[in-house]
Task: inverse folding
């Protein structure tokens, strides 16, 4: 008997259907794997977290775990708003690059151009040094005297006065040492150059421009819809300690949600805020004077994950921890925000990024 063969168009349709079934199956496996990781780390009756995974800006996973408020037993939802701590530095760095692009700032400018009385000890401390944590300025969050004023609202000038007369840790450009003081100075320079407060600048030029409706500068008095409560764990869970947002300022005072941070990351990759040649400056793995790499750009750590380049940054502020990872070669972005400073999302965020990258290879 003669065997009849299917027409080529039918074979193409069958192949397409089988391929889509396979893709759906893989996607379901990825989702269930991520679910199991996060359900184990954030049980239903504890402070929780929200996680989002996207590829080229398109959301492929967005779920919440645990509780947003222990006292009221409020379940966490994907749209909850968190304090993001040092992820704030990304917004400060991009704000500086906006002013660079406008010709109002140069990366090689000495900071005394903007703060004439800053004691640089005859050293040239540049905008680049501040952005790259290579200034040598004393990190103010390591100073014990900070805790005597941490509940007070202070001006940027008062905050800078807290550390400016401290001895330098090293000469500018000779070492890398993570430094909140540098980003405080950058916030003050943004204000001086733009004529706006730091809060006004990021709100006008980033949040409103991109439609990030759940992102803002922190305020304890303002009613912020869907704000998650922050916790600390000793023997039992406790409400996080009160600290004025003015103490973290442009180094860590912003609030956001995973969806808004996905908008932010995609806007950067699509050059919606800066020209391509300008935004590239944020993602260079800069070198010290001796040629050693810092593994830091401007507001992002430059690392590798699964042998692929990774742009990442975490955040810590009392009651909250956060972690974001972007893999430029695959377009994968993973952001995790949680509301207890006892339960860092760093490792699971990286693990999820690796899983997503493997899935899309």
Result:
């Amino acid at each position: 008997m003669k065997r009849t063969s299917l027409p080529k168009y039918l074979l193409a349709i069958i192949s397409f259907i089988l391929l889509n079934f396979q893709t759906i199956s893989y996607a379901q496996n990825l989702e269930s794997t991520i679910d199991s990781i996060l359900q184990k780390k954030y049980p239903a009756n504890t402070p929780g977290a929200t996680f989002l995974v996207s590829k080229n800006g398109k959301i492929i996973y967005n779920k919440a775990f645990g509780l947003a408020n222990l006292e009221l037993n409020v379940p966490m939802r994907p749209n909850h708003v968190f304090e993001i701590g040092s992820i704030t530095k990304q917004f400060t760095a991009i704000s500086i690059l906006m002013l660079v692009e406008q010709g109002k700032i140069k990366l090689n400018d000495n900071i005394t151009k903007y703060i004439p009385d800053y004691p640089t000890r005859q050293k040239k401390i540049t905008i680049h040094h501040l952005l790259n944590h290579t200034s040598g300025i004393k990190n103010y969050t390591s100073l014990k005297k900070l805790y005597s004023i941490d509940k007070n609202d202070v001006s940027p000038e008062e905050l800078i006065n807290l550390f400016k007369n401290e001895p330098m840790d090293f000469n500018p450009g000779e070492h890398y040492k993570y430094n909140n003081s540098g980003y405080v100075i950058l916030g003050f320079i943004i204000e001086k150059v733009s004529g706006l407060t730091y809060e006004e600048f990021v709100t006008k030029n980033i949040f409103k421009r991109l439609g990030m409706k759940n992102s803002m500068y922190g305020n304890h008095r303002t009613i912020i819809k869907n704000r998650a409560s922050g916790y600390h764990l000793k023997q039992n869970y406790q409400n996080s300690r009160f600290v004025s947002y003015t103490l973290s300022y442009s180094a860590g005072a912003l609030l956001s949600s995973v969806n808004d941070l996905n908008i932010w990351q995609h806007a950067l990759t699509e050059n919606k805020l800066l020209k391509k040649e300008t935004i590239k400056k944020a993602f260079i793995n800069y070198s010290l004077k001796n040629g050693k790499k810092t593994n830091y750009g401007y507001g992002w750590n430059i690392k590798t994950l699964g042998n692929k380049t990774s742009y990442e940054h975490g955040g810590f502020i009392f009651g909250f921890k956060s972690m974001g990872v972007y893999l430029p070669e695959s377009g994968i972005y993973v952001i995790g925000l949680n509301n207890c400073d006892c339960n860092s999302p760093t490792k699971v965020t990286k693990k999820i990024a690796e899983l997503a990258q493997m899935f899309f290879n």
